[in-house]
Specification:
Blueprint lengths: L16 H11 L7 H21 L3 H12 L3 E5 L6 E2 L1 H12 L16 H11 L7 H22 L1 H6 L4 H18 L3 H11 L9 H4 L3 H21 L15 H5 L6 H4 L23 H14 L6 E7 L2 H7 L3 H4 L5 H5 L2 H11 L15 H7 L2 E4 L2 H4 L8 E7 L4 E6 L12 H12 L5 H12 L8 H6 L4
Parallel strand pairs: 3-4
Antiparallel strand pairs: 1-2, 3-5, 5-6
Helix pairs in contact: 1-9, 2-4, 2-6, 2-21, 2-22, 3-4, 4-5, 4-11, 5-6, 5-8, 5-11, 6-8, 8-9, 8-11, 9-11, 14-18, 18-19
């Protein structure tokens, strides 16, 4: 529970969404945060560090850095996993893109988006714009998560996706603006203008699915870049519409057929959205995780040989069908890594073939593996009203495997591994960090980063963390 008096935020009604959120972000202090909330922010920060370090090695991340270098965008800010230094807004662009490149960044189920992928890169880059302590960093990130997730809830994820938008990108621009403006010390009116400016930069097309393109990876990076510029412009007096969220032509009405504005302010100041965030143990879209967990359970319990698989049926929530299951023939024949990340048949096949769905499996050539191909051809994705009835607060799943000897094996999961109700422990998070960062940095640096994150609230200057995440 925050100490702030809700009466100071303005009327908690749908006609004041932008201003109420702006005042909430501007007034939030570190002292308002419980030890649990602080712990969540540090926990997710270690996830950010590991996933971004690994993501910095991808072809898409390298291409973006090459593009920045080609036009001379040198500056003070760290591009994670490299020795490169660029201007702050471009560091946020590069780091947000790298963070999202391997599909292992955190996710909020109710909003159907990835909040950390814009909040953390933005906050880290802002340390080269203004002085940012560990406490400042944590407070701004917590505020950013709230803005991003609350807007995603208000859009209604399935409605937003149906119109071809990626909510991580669209809501992320607002969240990044909130993080940057909060760290600049902008007050309510100026912060509302920053959100208004960010609202004209909200983009992110789902058409990347058509060809397995890299553009999804760019979405949060561009949102962070846009949010920083929105805050900088607002600080200099540039104005934006202070009804950008709730207005007649504002974000909710323009980006959703059936928005639910009441969800934007619901539980504001009572439940921080950073604590409602899920961690990804598998290298793919979160809509695949529940079925993969079920199939891994069956693999462990029955030692299934993939060649003995006659048919696989997986229950997928309706909101995820378009992303991971349709068109089914294309999903059974993925061509690129992005195709694999968003193919439920591929995820099911590697789970039953290799007993995991890690980075090692999501590599070019894996779909041609005879055992993987055999299973992919036999995967059927199904919707289930019983699953849909529990969404979006929950992402349940089930899986059935028919074997050639006539058995039907079934497993169900209510909360995939990594959900707050089925959490990853600190030890498991450290294991994930070490696994992901090992190709880039050595053991000593890994331990320094872990120690820095565990004591983040004591850090006087967050640039210390940025330096640890470089390869200088």
């Amino acid at each position: 529970m925050v100490r702030n008096n809700k009466d100071d935020w303005g009327d908690l009604d749908n006609s004041q969404l932008t201003r109420v959120l702006s005042r909430f972000v501007a007034d939030l202090t570190y002292e308002d945060l419980s030890p649990e909330v602080v712990e969540w922010a540090k926990f997710l920060c270690l996830d950010f560090a590991g996933v971004t370090l690994n993501g910095s090695t991808t072809d898409s991340a390298n291409a973006l850095v090459e593009a920045l270098n080609s036009v001379g965008r040198g500056g003070p800010s760290t591009v994670i996993g490299t020795s490169e230094k660029v201007l702050p807004e471009y560091a946020a662009l590069a780091n947000g893109t790298a963070f999202h490149s391997i599909e292992m960044d955190d996710v909020n189920l109710e909003a159907c988006l990835h909040p950390g992928v814009t909040a953390y890169p933005t906050a880290l880059a802002m340390a080269d714009v203004v002085e940012v302590s560990g406490k400042d960093f944590i407070t701004a990130v917590v505020a950013g998560y709230d803005v991003i997730v609350r807007l995603g809830r208000g859009l209604v994820g399935a409605e937003h996706y149906a119109r071809g938008f990626h909510p991580t990108a669209t809501c992320g621009a607002f969240g990044a603006a909130a993080v940057a403006a909060r760290l600049m010390g902008l007050k309510c009116e100026s912060l509302a203008h920053a959100l208004g400016i960010a609202g004209s930069q909200t983009s992110g097309s789902m058409e990347y699915l058509a060809q397995g393109a890299w553009t999804k990876r760019l979405h949060p990076g561009w949102a962070s870049h846009s949010g920083i510029w929105a805050a900088l412009m607002a600080r200099s007096g540039y104005t934006g519409p202070t009804t950008i969220i709730e207005g007649r032509d504002g974000f909710l009405q323009a980006y959703s057929d059936n928005p639910e504005p009441g969800l934007v302010l619901k539980d504001l100041g009572e439940e921080y959205q950073v604590t409602r965030t899920s961690i990804k143990p598998h290298t793919c879209c979160r809509f695949k995780h529940g079925p993969i967990d079920c199939l891994l359970d069956l693999k462990r319990a029955y030692g299934i040989d993939p060649i003995d698989v006659a048919e696989v049926r997986v229950g997928v929530v309706s909101a995820g069908m378009k992303l991971v299951s349709e068109p089914i023939e294309a999903k059974r024949t993925p061509k690129t890594v992005v195709d694999m990340q968003f193919s439920m048949p591929f995820g099911a096949a590697v789970a039953l073939t290799h007993g995991r769905a890690s980075l090692e499996e999501y590599q070019l050539g894996m779909p041609e593996n005879p055992a993987v191909k055999h299973v992919m051809e036999r995967v059927h994705c199904m919707t289930d009203p019983a699953l849909d009835a529990l969404t979006p607060k929950q992402m349940p799943a089930w899986a059935e495997v028919d074997t050639n000897d006539g058995r039907t094996l079934r497993s169900e999961v209510g909360y995939p591994k990594g959900d707050p109700e089925n959490p990853v422990s600190w030890d498991e998070m450290k294991e994930k960090f070490i696994m992901l960062s090992s190709p880039i940095i050595g053991h000593e640096r890994q331990q320094e980063i872990i120690a820095a994150v565990e004591s983040l609230e004591q850090m006087s200057d967050v640039r210390q963390l940025a330096e640890l995440l470089s390869t200088c």
